[in-house]
Amino acid sequence: MSRARRIWVTAAAVLAVVGASPGMAQAQPTGSAPLAVQADLPPGWQVTGEGQDRQLVWRSADPVPMGDARVEFYDGDRLLGRPAAARDGRTFRLDLDAVPLKSTEDLQVLSGGRRLDAAGVAEEKRQDRRSPAVANPPAALPANSVDPGKPGSYRTVTGEYKLDSVKLPDIPEPVEMQAVVVAPDGATGKRPLALFLHGRHGTCYKPGAEDATGDWPCPSGMKSIPSHRGYLRDQKLLASQGYVTVSISANGINGQDFAADDGGAQARSSLVRQHLARWADWAGHPDTAPAIVRKAPKTDLSRVLLVGHSRGGEGVNRAAMDSLYPPPTAQDGYHGRVRWHIRGTVLIGPTIFGQNPVPDVPSVTILPGCDGDVSDLQGEVYVDGTRSVSRGTALHSAVYVVGANHNFFNSEWTPGQAQAPANDDFWDDEEQPDKVCSPGTRTRLTADQQHKAGATYIAAAARLFVAGDDRVRPLLDGSGKRAPSADPARVLTHAVGANRRAGFLPDGKVSVTGARLCSAADPDPAVACLDPETAGGSPHFASWETGREVGRGAVALRWSQPGSVARVTPDKPLSLGGAKGLTLRVIVPPNTTGTQLDVAVTDTAGRRATLGRVRVDGLPGSDRTASYWAREVRVPLAAAAGLDLRHIKSLELTPRSGSGKAWLMDAWGWRPGTPAVRAAALPRVDIGRLTVKEGDSGVRTYQVPVQVSGQGSGQVRVYVVDPDTGQAEDRLVTVRPGGNDIDVPVQVEGNTRFSYGDATDVIVKAVRNSVIGSYRGGVTAENDDPAPTVSVTPVADRVTEGQPLKWRVSLSAVADADMWALFSVEPVTGGTELSTKDVDPQWLEEYSGESPDPERPLSQLEGLYLWMDIPAGQTSVEVLLPTVKDTVTEPAESVRFRQADDSGEPQSDGAVLSGTVLDAS
Asked: pTM of the full predicted structure?
């Protein structure tokens, strides 16, 4: 039996047999008990450290590659926090100074919606969540009239520049200013600029070895991983078509962003704008530019496309926001003028921790169907999260690439192509291969196929947003066309915005009959759109930090026979005047085919028209994919000629399939075309964090720092998270620049008792006519009192065999946190030692996992410990050691336990529990 297992058994025994909390000496918070010592900690977990240094620790059996999705610790539905990764890639530590760890029964490790501590998932549940027997790719779509994946006529020139590093707020070490440029050779006139930003990956590697770390700067003997060179294929395609491209390095942020509330989004935005500012400088003073920039054509910074991968996607989204709505000076790493115009963004497998897309900057979000990093495909929020927030003229497209993983869009993250160690991020199980995403399946793409598809759709976005060629729009807006250059990849799209108007939205004031309004994120299965036990997930229903969300949902349909009508009625009639058709985004379960729905509308005069019938097929999916994704389908409005299209009262969906399920995300009046986009003047909200000491007395009230800048007024939803329960209360707030509309007072009570620190978190989200920069903040009250010391008093330390030894462990002061201590058995200093046959055999088994035979001194048992907990508000507990009476004449026998540290090692100056047992014969 391992040491860890033995200590675990000891803890279980103490709690089970004594019925109270057993023995101790130097008080530590309960959160400090070693993994093995907390009886209810799941395998792989431990709690270490003392006082302010206590940490919740999880160790993975296998290395967890450094990636873009956050690793998060949860207790059930409650977010405990985001741990820091150790250099071994297996160990993750969360400081507990401001996290009351009230329960350890349902500890979980999640990353991008995927559970990493798979050992915690019962096998019987796994059996019900397996992949389908066979997964088939969707049928090929008709080819579009133009193919943006075809190379252009220009030859290309490539080179790098490296400038002085820059210091960014909240990033301790300077960040590199390094980039690779690929430009058209011989192009005349000013050319548009496309800037690429890679995501969060390892930062350093040792050539010739498999060692890769997240350090910054790189240690001696290691080299920086050239993630910024992973998009050369995409850059060369764009450069051949006349674009100047630059891909920037962000390893300095990757190695230092783990503690940032926003995951480093503001730092990445600052870095992007630092580079754009240099390009603006060079445009005015070409003689100061690096050699490769001088070789390139002049750039037209009124036409800029930003491309970001993973956390780089969230970074360029923030850069687009900061270019329109400047951030607070103190949190920004760029303070110059904005001398560029961002025409659009391309976001590849992006994170969106803040759920704060920029509504008036067009975007294309590429969703990899086999993403093993940001596996919940939360980037869908860049589409869904823009609905009704602003003017709605910007096109926001989601591009679902069946069979693509997260890493292979970057060649420096691709095995066989990368200079540094690289891996396939999709988590394959050799014993249970995934029928959709395991290598070699019909639906899984090779690295080359995937990168080719990615390059094609990046070029499509450039051609639409920057060049203004509306002929490529059908590749991006759900019109059901394909780019042959991306073959054999199956690429599906849907969109909101552009020429979509008058939406039937489940997020607003709407009534539903024959179906139910459901919530995208809610712990109650009766309210949630997708039951948490469902095999697989949905990008539309990816969870957020609040656990429960208001104002993000769908209309859920379920039928057992054809003909049951689901009716959606908004609070006010909608106008479909000028629209050519009605376009709907509808989800059906993965691997299903042939779901058919009749679509009808009714005007305010009661006239009804059936517009047509749509067929929706599910995506290839498994329990490891987020394949509950909406397909876009359209019906013409020709059949509604007799209706008043300016006053449509309701929408009806009537299933014509035998039985099934579907979710309506939204429906819009639609017509072709891509309108010009003009960003609205909006207020911007940034939440700050205030850290204070609790003090020794009195109650002090602090305000959560909030800054509202920009112009106009808008609505946001404010969530205040209770520090004790983790539950969030929400309210809708109208904000104006310079106002104090978001008023969150936090009371901090001072005392002289040791406790956990307390953090009251505030999270904010745009609802209408607003944008959110720093979405998360609050007030953190730090404990400033020392942990109490412990004394041990014998209660019965000299007893006759058959009677229990007893000690009382007392604290020097009352604490507001549970306190614990651990004692390890050690040899006695003189005389005969108590043996395995002198103590209760059940107690021995439960405490150490050992049996009495063969008889041996207790100190020879590796892993015999006493552990106890003193609950908050109490000052002492009693510890018992049960002995047994026998018929053998024996001398007095003794036992001795010494206080151990959190790893189970005895402390030389630790308190001692000792006792003597006398013969009863």
From this structure: 0.86
